[in-house]
Amino acid sequence: MLLKGKNAVVYGGAGSIGGAAARAFAREGAHVFLAGRTPAPLQALAKEIGAEWAVVDALDAAAVDAHADTIGRIDISFNVINHNDVQGTPMAEMDVEDYLAPVLTAVRTNLITWQAAARHGAGVILVFGGEGDPPRGYHLGGLQTAFHALEAMRRQFSTENRGVRVITLRTGGVPESIPKNFQGRDAITKSLDESTLLGRSATLEDVGNVAAFVASDQARTMTAATVNVSAGALID
User: Fold this and answer.
1) What gap in Å lies between CA 145 and CA 14, rounded to an integer?
2) Which one of 3, 20, 59, 163 has the lowest number of neighbouring Cβ atoms within 10 Å?
């Protein structure tokens, strides 16, 4: 087991990406702590994988610190809460507040949870997003700007906190994370698959497996870096 004896906290743990990471962490022997704002899915996943769960607003520094205190040592921290992004509107026509919402949310919540992790002995902080060129035909609002902001933060946090490994996971899109009732889901899935070099997109299980590996001691030399989990949709 790659993560035996490790304490891993996943903020947004009941979401698609968070759930995939939590399942992989638990499978590899970690003691998993799920944090989020909606009790029912947290409780269901916690029961499935044998994790602990708590209602935590990851935009509230006091709430995050209080929760971290109940955990004690945090070996792995992964924040994948919803960034409150608005998509589908061209940038030139978008309301300024709608554009800024994911940027402000991403910067605030990650700074809060990273600080809490550092105060509680974190060995690894995982980041989700990464830099990339805007894809043609999609109106992503401020989401990609938020991802770029997180990369700037990741670089700075890596250099200022010796001994804490900070790694970004870049996927280029995970079709399974798109709600099944989302209009145009099949077309988006086809487009994502066709954009890869392997002819298939990363799955949620793929993302979870890579998250578990880079959080493990087998990847102990990896920090201040991005890990490409895009099946070749993104070329480094």
Assistant:
1) 24
2) 163
pLDDT block averages, 10 residues each, the chain of length 236? 97 96 98 98 98 98 98 98 83 92 96 97 93 68 89 96 95 84 78 89 96 98 96 90
DSSP state of 203: P
How many other CB atoms are there within 10 angstroms of residue 178's CB atom? 16
Q: What is the pLDDT of residue 109?
A: 98
pLDDT at position 177: 85
Residue 100: partners with Cβ closer than 8 Å, 6 or more residues away:
142
Global confidence as pTM: 0.94
Tell me phi and psi for residue 43, to 5 degrees.
-65, -40
Q: Is the dihedral of CA 213, 231, 200, 77 positive or negative?
A: positive
Cβ neighbour number for residue 166 with a 10 Å cutoff: 25
Cα angle for residues 148, 176, 36 (degrees, 5° grid) = 65
Instruction: Classify residue 128 by burial, with Cβ atoms within 10 Å: 0-12, 13-18, 19+.
Output: buried
Cβ-proximal residues to 135 (8 Å cutoff; 6+ apart), any chain: 195
What's the one-letter identity of residue 211? A
Instruction: Set out the domains of the chain in order of their start, with CATH numbers.
Output: 7-228 (3.40.50.720)
Residue 173 has a pLDDT of 85
What does the alpha-carbon distance between residue 202 and residue 196 come to, in Å, rounded to a whole number? 9
